[in-house]
Each structure stands twice: as structure tokens, then as C-alpha cells.
Design a protein that fits this description.
CATH architecture: 3-Layer(aba) Sandwich
Number of helices: 11
Low-confidence stretches: none
Radius of gyration: 17 Å
Number of domains: 1
Distance between the termini: 37 Å
CATH class: Alpha Beta
CATH superfamily: Alpha/Beta hydrolase fold, catalytic domain
Mean pLDDT: 96
Shape: globular
Strand order of the largest sheet: 1-3-2-4-5-6-7
Largest sheet: 7 strands, mixed
Helix content: 40-55%
Order of helices and strands: HEEHEHEHEHHHHEHEHH
Length: 266
């Protein structure tokens, strides 16, 4: 299957600029990058994709076994950069795709220059002194609710993820994106996302890394950003004056500025 079709790949922006690969999180698609892309495309070449099972990716590419692990998605990232012969890529991953990008660069750093982790979480479940933001019972309840009523779950969770209750149109857009997904694909991806534990992988990240967090985020609280930064050998932490788990949607100007400044730095 052609990699472009499988992932609905779109390449936009400055043809000879540095390459940024923008990869969305759970329940999202590449369209949610548009406000950041608008601010970056004059300087950078942007590679936008839909993960298999999301957006306009090819439904025929779905494999429940492969995508029950984040390593399946990481393998796809490596397929894309190799098939497109991309080099010196700055990988920008939102939420779960931050860990997907981490795994891809650990497996083969040769095609990548830097890593940007936007509101990452290596583990959503509290464990001893580690605070992921949720108990195991919270996650079990979340996944059970998704199983029983995906559309209702999507509409209920979107405002929690997006934050910014004074701007309900943002949560409406996120909810609309959730509702476009195949419920079976979403169920598997949700389990993969919320039950994964990649804490031990952070120390293995071989690239300069920027960790971007929102000042307020109910999905990835500040303790998570601090933890990720502390575990990655060559990392910086930026806290945006933003609310919610999707600052590329709610605060695109400061998000784009942080990404661009890091991508330019030497």
C-alpha cells in the first residue's frame, strides 16, 4: 500500500526549508495543526499525516494487533521518513504521538534532528511517587465508557481535553473530530494510549528535545512535564501561557513560536 495513501500525507510550506513532521494525538487528525501550520509554512517544510485509524488514513491499513502497541505507530513513522527520504527531520508529536515519536527516534535516529513533545505523557496512571494524573480506576472507567457509548464519550471528554470553557467552539471541533473516527479503531487506540507506560524509554531518547506543556492541563498536569524533562538527557521545558491539552488549537501563536525557535536553534 502506498505510504501517501495509507497516511493521507500532505507536504506544504517552504520547499527548501527545514522539515517539520507534525503528528496528531488520539482522536485527532492533521487538520487540527492548521493554525500552527499557517504560522510555520513560510519558513519550514511541513509534513502532515494521519495516523492509521484516524482522519483520512486508509481504513484498509488498520490492524488491531499492530496498533495495540505504540511501537506499531512508531514503525509507521519510520516507514514514512524512509519512503519520503526525509532527513534532519524535527518531529513534532502531540500527546500520545510525543511517545510515538520518542520510540521512532530511539529505534532509528538517523533521519531525525530534533524532537518536540507537545503536552506529552509517558504514563497516564499514578504510580507511587509518580503522578500521571489518573488512577487505574479512572482509566478503566474511561475505557469502559468509551466501549459503551463512543459518541457520547467523545462529546463528554472533548471539553475536558480542550479546556477553555469560555471558548466552547474549540471543544465542539475536537468532539466533531472524535466522532468521525471508527469506534472500533478508537477503542483500540484509546487502550494503547491510556494504558501505555513509556517512562523507561525517556532516558534513551538520543536527540535534543523540547518539552512543551500548557500552564493548565487536566490530561497532563505540570508534574508530568517536569518528569519528562528530568528524564530526557538533552531537553528543554517550555510552559506556555495556555490552557488545555491542545495548545496548538487554543493558543497557536505561542505554540508555533516555541516550535520555530527550537527548530532554528543550533
Amino acid at each position: 500500500m502506498d505510504v501517501h495513501t495509507r497516511h493521507n500525507i500532505n507536504v506544504v510550506g517552504a520547499e527548501h526549508g527545514p522539515t517539520l513532521m507534525l503528528v496528531h494525538g488520539f482522536g485527532c487528525d492533521q487538520n487540527l495543526w492548521r493554525l500552527v501550520a499557517d504560522r510555520l509554512e513560510s519558513e519550514f517544510r511541513l509534513v502532515l499525516i494521519d495516523l492509521v485509524g484516524s482522519g483520512l488514513s486508509d481504513p484498509a491499513a488498520w490492524d488491531a494487533t499492530k496498533y495495540s502497541s505504540l511501537s506499531g505507530y512508531a514503525a509507521d513513522i519510520l516507514d514514512i521518513v524512509n519512503e519520503l527520504d526525509l532527513r534532519e527531520v524535527v518531529f513534532v508529536g502531540h500527546s500520545v504521538s510525543a511517545m510515538i515519536g520518542a520510540l521512532a527516534t530511539i529505534a532509528d535516529p538517523s533521519r531525525f534532528a530534533k524532537l518536540v513533545l507537545l503536552t506529552p505523557s509517558p504514563c497516564y496512571i499514578d504510580d507511587g511517587d509518580y503522578r500521571g494524573g489518573f488512577s487505574k480506576a479512572d482509566i478503566d472507567e474511561l475505557l469502559e465508557s468509551l466501549e459503551q457509548n463512543y459518541l457520547g464519550w467523545s462529546r463528554a471528554l472533548a471539553p475536558v481535553i480542550m479546556g477553555n470553557p469560555d471558548r466552547p467552539e474549540l471543544a465542539d471541533e475536537l468532539g466533531d473530530t472524535f466522532c468521525k473516527a471508527d469506534p472500533e479503531h478508537a477503542r483500540v487506540f484509546a487502550g494503547t494510549t491510556f494504558l501505555s507506560d513509556n517512562r523507561t524509554d525517556l532516558a534513551r531518547i538520543p536527540l535534543p528535545t523540547l518539552v512543551i506543556e500548557s500552564a493548565t492541563d487536566s490530561i497532563a498536569p505540570p508534574e508530568v512535564g517536569a518528569y519528562v524533562h528530568a528524564q530526557i538527557p538533552d531537553s528543554q521545558l517550555v510552559t506556555l501561557a495556555a490552557t488545555g491539552h491542545c495548545p496548538h488549537v487554543s493558543a497557536p501563536e505561542v505554540t508555533a513560536s516555541a516550535i520555530a525557535a527550537f527548530a532554528r536553534s543550533t
